[in-house]
Structure formats: C-alpha cells, structure tokens
Write a structure and sequence with these properties.
Belongs to the class-I aminoacyl-tRNA synthetase family. Glutamate--tRNA ligase type 1 subfamily. About 50% of the residues lie in helices and about 10% in strands. It is mainly α and about 500 residues long.
C-alpha cells in the first residue's frame, strides 16, 4: 500500500490544540503502518486569522512531537508549494474552470436576502440553506446585478441526488440532497474558501485517504461532488479519497474539548514538562486501541499495529489525570542519563546549573535524579525537587508556609538533638545518618518518625515534601547539612 497518501492540514490560527495533534498522529501512524506518504499542508488562506507566529508554532510542535512529514514545508515534494497562501493562482484558475464548465455559478444575493431565506425556512419548518436563487440567471440578469454594484460569490452547483459513502470509521453514511445546498467556493473579494482549496489540494496532491475530525462529516458530500467536478474539468485523475471521521475529543461536562479549555493547549504540556512520547501515547488512546488492554507503547509500536478499523466511532473523553499518569510511567521508563538530559535545560533556566553543567553539578544529578524519578509526574517538578541540592548556600531558602508549620519553638529541641548526633558521626553515609537520627530523635526523644524527621526535612530541603531525606543529606555533605540545621534553629 505504498501508494497511500494522507495529509494533515491545519490552519495557523492560535496555539496548537491536542485534538489537532490527535488527528496528525492518526494520519502519521496510518501512513507509517502501510509504508505510505504523510503530507503536511498549511491551510492559510484566511488572511484575517492566520499568522506567521502560529505557522512557526505548528512546525515547531510537530518537530517536538517527532511527527516527521514526508512532504510539506521545509521538506518540499512533487506537489508543492504546501502553503495555500502560495497557491492562490491555482485556486483562481480552478474556480474559473468550474464556472466555465457549469459546475459553479456567480451568486449576487446580499446578506440581508440570505438572512430572509433562512428565517422563512425556519417558519416553514424546512431545512435551512441556500435556495438556488442565482442558479439559473440569464446574462442580462447578471449584467443588471453588476450594474447595481452588487458583489458576487462563486457557488458550487450541488447535484440533485443523495450522497452515500463508506466511511472508514463510521460505516455507510448517507446525506439527503435536500440537506446539502449549493455552497460558496470563493468570497466576494476573490478570496478562496476552505470548501474549494481543501478538495483542490487533495485532488492535485493525489491524497488517497482523508482521516479528519467528526466535526467535518457534514462537509463530505460537498467535497465528494466537487471531486467529480474536478475530474470533469481535468484537475484530478478522477480518484475520490476514502474518508474516515475520527471521534470527538470530549472535555469536562461531556462537551467537545475546545481551544478555551486549558487542557487543550499543546504548549501547556510542553511547558509543564510532559514528554512528547507520553503525550502521543495518551492521545493515541483517544479513540484507538492496541488491543489486549495495552496502554503503554511507543510510537514505533503504534505505527506497527495501527489499523483504521480499530478506531472507535464513539466520542473519547480527555482525562488529564490519565494523561499525567502515563507521563509518569514514561519518565520512569527513561534511563537516568536520558532523564538528566531532559531536565537539564529547566535547571539551567532556573539558574541552578551552568550550561553546560560543571563536573560537580553532573555528579550531584547522577546521585539525585534516581531519588526523584519514581516521584516525578512531569519534568517541571524536577526543578523544585533537586533545586535544594544545587542552589548556592546564600540562595537557599525555606518554603514560608512549610517553615511556619514545622519549625516552631517545639522544633528547636529536635534540631539541636539532630545536630549533636550528626556531628558525632565518623562516617557520612545514608545508613549512618538514618541510624543516628533515628537513635537521637525517635528513641532518644520518644518522637514519632513524622514529628522527628519533619523539622529536619524542612531544614535540609526547604519543604515538607522532598526526595528521600537521608540520601539527600549524604549528597549535600556534612558541612552543608549541619549549616542548614543550625540556620533553621533561628527560624520562628
């Protein structure tokens, strides 16, 4: 099936959305599974909404995710250019041929006239839609409208028959012709619409399979009819792509996940330190299954197993907790060196390590990262978890709320006993530190471990929740640990 060609064609408006990424992923996996071609195309004909900033963010996001494309921006290919804003002459030529061939016509209806049509249809309980007012205008009528100064749009002439296709996800789908009225291809200012440019590019780029969101299901009859017209005017070879409409991604309250939902923003996951492998792993589960209840897999494994008939037609609910859990699983699967490499840029941005890190900093991380790997849900948390081991002595601070809760007057005796026990240690090791503090605080002062080690933990790490205490103290060393314990005694 190496002749399979799929496409991912987002518009560069706003920040990338996880639902959009799920669409890209399914197309990528399908192409990789069958040895086909993954085309990346930019639909940027909406000059009022598209931006270069969003375009750059799209490319950067796909690169970060590892969804490599075979044709498209920066890669090229035989059917370029792959930005629609660079193909406007092509669309103008196609529109002219559709007009000449009688597949489209100029419509002079004003916005007020169209509104009146819709209102009348509502009153008469008819399906709303364009009523074909300008379908069969004579040359004299067109000239009269133009003499009035009326602008015209280009409308496609829908055939008077029902449209049926076998959807790859949903099975047989039929739309009655009365529900698919003639639609606009080109605005009055000459700007082509999605309804024209998308099928034209699919036809000219030899796209064989269209996998896209369920929200575009109702546009499929229009596109199938347009493909037939494009073949008649010689723009395509007559091949109509196979369609598969992916299920909605739902958010809270059983409603479709929208750009307004915080969890929909791809950049949020990157900033918070989600691994691209983990995010793609989770998004793959939104409507697709490996089978055998397997939920943890690489993109290579997904591509090897991906079959479109395993995509569900039912809506999929986005669960941030599940996504975070899978991210934690992926973090735990990394080698220590790989995890350090991924954490390092965040530590450098926080001023905790140099870039590149010094030998001493590398040594600390080599010891510290295994202590936090099991606890991490995202890479961002690593800064807070190991920062106390890397910060300069004069920059070490206590979390105010934690210090207030734990380092009161009652803690002074605990800290003093801890200092005395630790100063006497002949060997500074995890086990020796543990035994000394246990003997002095739990057995000597009769404290429960929670109350015995809580003040020590805050004094050493600056917070009540931290990596393992005794291992952390070994990494810090005797002098720094004792200095922090002594400093904490003055906190009230």
């Amino acid at each position: 099936m190496s002749d399979v060609r799929v496409r991912f064609c987002p518009s560069p408006t706003g920040n990338p959305h996880v639902g959009m990424v799920r669409t890209a992923l399914f197309n990528w996996a399908f192409a990789r599974h069958v040895g086909g071609t993954f085309v990346f195309r930019i639909e940027d004909t909406d000059s009022a909404r598209d931006s270069e900033e969003s375009y750059d963010a799209l490319l950067d996001s796909l690169r970060w995710l590892g969804l490599t494309w075979d044709e498209g921006p920066e890669v090229g290919g035989p059917y370029g250019p792959y930005r629609q804003s660079q193909r406007l002459d092509i669309y103008a030529d196609v529109a002219a041929k559709l007009l000449d061939g009688g597949f489209a016509y100029r419509c002079y209806c004003t916005a007020e006239e169209l509104d009146a049509q819709r209102e009348l249809a509502k009153k008469e309980n008819r399906a709303p839609g364009y009523e074909g007012t300008c379908r069969d205008l004579t040359a004299d009528q067109r000239n009269a409208f133009e003499a009035e100064g009326r602008a015209s749009v280009v409308r496609f002439r829908m055939p008077d028959r029902d449209c049926t296709w076998n959807d790859l996800v949903r099975g047989e789908v039929t739309f009655g012709h009365e529900h698919v009225p003639d639609y606009v291809l080109v605005r009055g200012n000459g700007e082509p619409l999605y309804t024209l440019v998308n099928p034209v590019d699919d036809a000219m780029m030899r796209i064989t399979h269209v996998l896209r969101g369920e929200d575009l299901l109702s546009s499929t009859p229009r596109q199938i009819a347009l493909y037939e017209a494009l073949a008649a005017i010689g723009v395509s070879d007559g091949t109509t792509p196979l369609f598969g409409h992916l299920p909605y991604v739902m958010g809270e309250g059983n409603r479709k996940l929208s750009k307004r939902d915080p969890e929909s923003a791809l950049l949020m996951y990157r900033e918070e330190g989600y691994l691209p492998e983990a995010l793609l792993n989770y998004l793959a589960l939104l409507g697709w299954s490996m089978g055998d209840d397997q939920e943890f897999f690489s993109m290579e494994q997904m591509a090897a197993a991906f079959q479109i008939d395993r995509v569900s037609a039912n809506p999929a609910r986005f669960d941030l907790k599940k996504c975070t859990s899978i991210n934690g699983d992926w973090i735990r699967s990394l080698s220590v060196d790989d995890l350090i490499a991924r954490i390092m840029p965040r530590l450098a941005d926080a001023g905790l390590v140099s870039n590149p890190p010094s030998v001493d900093q590398q040594a600390i991380l080599k010891e510290a990262v295994p202590l936090i790997q099991e606890r991490l849900e995202n890479l961002k948390q690593a800064v807070g978890m190991v920062g106390f081991l890397l910060v300069q002595p004069e920059e070490f601070t206590l979390e105010e709320a934690d210090a207030k809760a734990v380092l009161g007057e009652d803690a002074d005796e605990t800290l003093a006993a801890a200092i005395t026990a630790l100063e006497a240690l002949p060997e500074w090791s995890t086990d020796a530190i543990h035994e000394a503090l246990k003997s002095a605080l739990v057995e000597g002062l009769g404290l429960k471990p929670k109350f015995a080690f809580g003040p020590v933990r805050v004094a050493i790490t600056g917070r009540r929740i931290s990596p393992p205490l005794f291992e952390s103290m070994e990494i810090l060393g005797r002098d720094v640990s004792l200095a922090r314990l002594n400093s904490a005694r003055s906190v009230r």
